[in-house]
């Protein structure tokens, strides 16, 4: 197979966001190693990453919090995966519109983020690529509500 990912052509400034929602329709073929879904920045730019751990658990990594959720993304089928991060640091992970796991990481520090690249499907340079297929990706500068997530129709 081949590996491809999307990287913003210009620097993105999420520092103006108080919250964020990432959404993706994807089919993961296997999860033998870590696979990046969304990455903002680099090791020197107050980055954060939403990834799948080996086995499929959703993980959030940043300078201010590192945690794994109890949510496992199914393999071999398309699912809508939505991760919302509120201003207070409440993370909710939805699979096909259902809240499958939530946790509190403490206040979100997006305001401290410097302009940086935004990557979908791998780290900058292609590290930890997503194994599978992506149908659609979306990003919002706010934490969508449960009813808004349930109403999404990613295809």
Detailed description of the structure:
The chain has 155 residues and is mainly β. 3% of the residues lie in helices and 43% in strands. The strands form two sheets. A six-stranded antiparallel beta sheet has the order 1-10-3-4-5-6, with no helix packed on it. The radius of gyration is 14 Å and the shape is globular. The relative contact order is 0.32.
Sheet of most strands? 6 strands, antiparallel
Helical residues, percent: under 10%
Spans of 5+ residues with little confidence (pLDDT < 50)?
Answer: none
**Helix count from the secondary structure assignment:** 1
The neighbouring-strand order within the major sheet is 1-10-3-4-5-6
Write the layout of secondary structure elements.
Elements: E1 6-7, E2 20-28, E3 35-40, E4 48-52, E5 57-61, E6 66-72, E7 78-85, E8 90-95, E9 98-104, E10 118-120, E11 132-140, H1 146-150
Brief summary of the model shown:
The chain is mainly beta and 155 residues long. The protein has one helix at 146-150; strands at 6-7, 20-28, 35-40, 48-52, 57-61, 66-72, 78-85, 90-95, 98-104, 118-120, 132-140. The strands form 2 sheets. The chain has a 6-stranded antiparallel sheet, with no helix packed on it. The protein has a 5-stranded antiparallel sheet with strand order 9-8-7-2-11.
Task: Name the descriptors.
5-stranded antiparallel beta sheet; 6-stranded antiparallel beta sheet; 43% strand; 3% helix
């Amino acid at each position: 197979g081949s590996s491809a990912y999307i990287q913003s052509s210009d620097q993105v400034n999420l520092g103006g966001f108080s919250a964020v929602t990432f959404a993706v329709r994807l089919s993961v073929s296997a999860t033998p190693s870590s696979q990046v879904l969304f990455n903002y920045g680099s090791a020197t730019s107050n980055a954060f990453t939403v990834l799948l751990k080996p086995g499929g658990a959703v993980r959030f990594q940043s300078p201010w919090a590192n945690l794994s959720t109890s949510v496992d993304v199914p393999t071999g089928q398309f699912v809508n995966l939505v991760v919302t991060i509120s201003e207070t640091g409440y993370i909710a992970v939805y699979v096909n519109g259902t809240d499958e796991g939530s946790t509190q990481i403490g206040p979100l520090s997006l305001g401290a983020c410097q302009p940086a690249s935004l990557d979908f499907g791998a780290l900058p340079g292609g590290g930890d690529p997503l194994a599978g297929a992506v149908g659609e990706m979306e990003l919002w500068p706010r934490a969508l509500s449960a009813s808004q997530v349930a109403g999404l129709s990613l295809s």
